[in-house]
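Why should sequence recovery work at all? Because a backbone constrains its sequence more than one might expect. Tight turns favour small or flexible residues, buried strands favour hydrophobic ones, and helices have their own preferences. The token representation captures these environments compactly. In the example below, the structure is given first.
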């Protein structure tokens, strides 16, 4: 089992509903994006705790942490794009006039987290994804 398979096994629930088939089934959930953002933050924290990885074990851990945080950041971007592009409709923009800016910010933060190891970027990504998830759930109430 490769690292990607292991990572997906960790962050994916046992039962998954997919809405990525372009069939209007209406199954959308921001949970995977939120787990991805939490994973990015955790990996960045573990990287920071390593300090300068000078021994082989630390270098191996660093490699795994970087791979997982980059994959998790891409999962965040993918899941948010799906919900934003397929679920949200013009009436939702009336409820959330900053929706497009929120998504744009998540895309930028996700890219920054893939490229770097700034823990503040990871924290900002998690907060932004949680706010996006709140918007999603509020839109379901109305």
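From this structural description, the recovered sequence reads:
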């Amino acid at each position: 089992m490769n690292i990607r398979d292991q990572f997906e096994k960790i962050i994916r629930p046992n039962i998954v509903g997919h809405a990525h088939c372009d069939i209007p089934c209406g199954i959308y959930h921001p949970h995977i994006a939120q787990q991805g953002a939490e994973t990015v933050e955790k990996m960045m924290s573990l990287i920071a705790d390593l300090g300068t990885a000078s021994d082989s074990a630390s270098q191996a851990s660093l490699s795994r942490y970087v791979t997982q945080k980059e994959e998790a950041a891409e999962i965040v971007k993918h899941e948010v794009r799906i919900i934003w592009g397929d679920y949200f409709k013009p009436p939702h923009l009336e409820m959330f006039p900053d929706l497009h800016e929120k998504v744009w910010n998540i895309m930028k933060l996700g890219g920054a987290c893939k490229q770097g190891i700034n823990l503040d970027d990871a924290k900002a990504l998690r907060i932004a994804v949680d706010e996006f998830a709140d918007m999603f759930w509020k839109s379901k109430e109305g």
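A few observations help interpret the result. The radius of gyration is 16 Å.
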